[in-house]
Design goal:
alpha/beta, 2 domains, 12 helices, binds pyridoxal-5'-phosphate
Length: 382
């Protein structure tokens, strides 16, 4: 068998390498997982199973059932004051499929996409697979890992077509403040950029509220908001994402999706429709738990030798600075895994500006976090 040339030297990403190593080890305290440790609530499961018994076992409408698209609109209006109608919503197979469809729909070969680094690593691959050119906009801890206007202006060229934002951010856990979003919006308008705004962590903000990019003046027509059920409603395995944006873009994305997946699993859509309409109280409950966990871990990290960590702003990630240890982020992570059996992800797995940092996911019980912090502290004392 001969693989395609472009895959003949395919290597796992920095993140996948860690996951593969953990699978072969026993007793790992795993702080590398980007999914909530809570199971999906049983009434959501019941809603999906009841739908199956009522006959919802057939192909779904390609764009998604009207009830779930309406529930998406209601949820975003209620939580983030975003006005959208079901015609502007497409249900996707996980949040991960959304940028893939959007980039295919938007890019001509050679078009440039600005990625704000450090960022969710699949974006790089998706831009290339869509014929585009990823352009890294590096951010720093001093600037809150948010793009400065000067840096943004510097990377924009006549070929720049799309700006991809992600706030709250994986991996930094930082949130871009409203004023900075407004400044970015002005740049997007000036250079006629389309904005893909990955807001999948919208339900997990610990200071202030979430600002949906499409609610900024003039931005709705040039923004696709990307959301999903994985992080907010603990439904990772259901693979439910959605996109909200201009009807013409949604139409083309639906067409592209029809030849990839032929729609999103019928039962998952029914579960999501129920969850979006009925679980607001649970979101608050879980956010409180994540906030407590993150506060605890930040305190512990800041008491460790050669480590500093800023407080959590959003998502469930912390991004401590380990530069003073003298180790690269890869060296640190692998040594921590091998010596202390604590799994984290090297910051460099999210782009070069993540070098010098680790991503710690607070997606484990406090009991496990306590043990992991004890082990990491002992590891650093050497
Ligand atoms: C920033 C970001 N976007 C999108 C996704 C995709 O999530 P899912 O495909 O589970 O909806 C993730 C998952 O980790 C993420 O961190």
């Amino acid at each position: 068998m001969k693989l395609a040339d472009r895959y003949s030297n395919a290597q796992p990403s920095g993140m996948v390498k860690i996951f593969q190593a953990i699978e072969k080890m026993d007793g790992v305290l795993n702080l590398s997982i980007g999914e909530p440790d809570f199971d999906t609530e049983h009434d959501i499961i019941d809603a999906a199973s009841n739908a199956a018994k009522e006959g919802f076992t057939h192909y779904p409408p390609l764009q998604g059932f009207l009830d779930v698209r309406t529930a998406v609109c209601d949820y975003w209006k209620r939580h983030h004051n975003l006005d959208c109608v079901p015609e502007e919503v497409l249900m996707t197979v996980g949040g991960i499929q959304t940028p893939n469809l959007a980039l295919r729909a938007l890019l001509n070969p050679g078009d440039e996409v600005v990625l704000v680094e450090p960022c969710f690593s699949p974006y790089f691959v998706q831009v290339k697979d869509s014929g585009g050119v990823p352009v890294s906009l590096k951010t720093t801890e001093e600037n809150g890992f948010a793009p400065t206007l000067a840096d943004l202006e510097k990377v924009i060229t006549p070929r720049t077509r799309v700006l991809l934002l992600n706030s709250p951010c994986n991996p930094t856990g930082r949130v871009v403040p409203r004023q900075q979003l407004e400044e970015i919006a002005a740049v997007a308008a000036r250079h006629d950029l389309f904005v893909l705004s990955d807001e999948i962590y919208e339900a997990l903000i610990y200071k202030g509220g979430h600002v949906s990019f499409a609610t900024l003046p003039g931005m709705k027509a040039r923004t696709l908001v990307m959301g999903g059920m994985s992080k907010s409603h603990c439904m990772t395995g259901w693979r439910v994402g959605y996109a909200m944006g201009p009807v013409e873009l949604i139409r083309v994305m639906t067409m592209i999706a029809s030849s990839q997946t032929y729609g999103l699993n019928t039962l998952a859509q029914k579960g999501a429709a129920y969850a979006l309409a009925n679980h607001d109280a649970k979101l608050i409950e879980r956010k409180k738990i994540f906030a407590e966990r993150m506060d605890y871990v930040v305190k512990r990290l800041n008491n460790m030798k050669n480590v500093t960590c800023t407080s959590a702003e959003g998502a469930f990630y912390l991004f401590p600075n380990i530069e003073k240890t003298g180790l690269s982020s890869e060296e640190f992570v692998w040594k921590l895994l091998e010596d202390a059996h604590v799994a984290t992800i090297p910051g460099s797995a999210f782009g070069t500006s993540g070098e010098g940092y680790l991503r710690i996911a607070c997606t484990q019980s406090t009991e496990i976090l306590v043990q992991a912090m004890d082990k990491m502290e002992a590891f650093l004392k050497g």
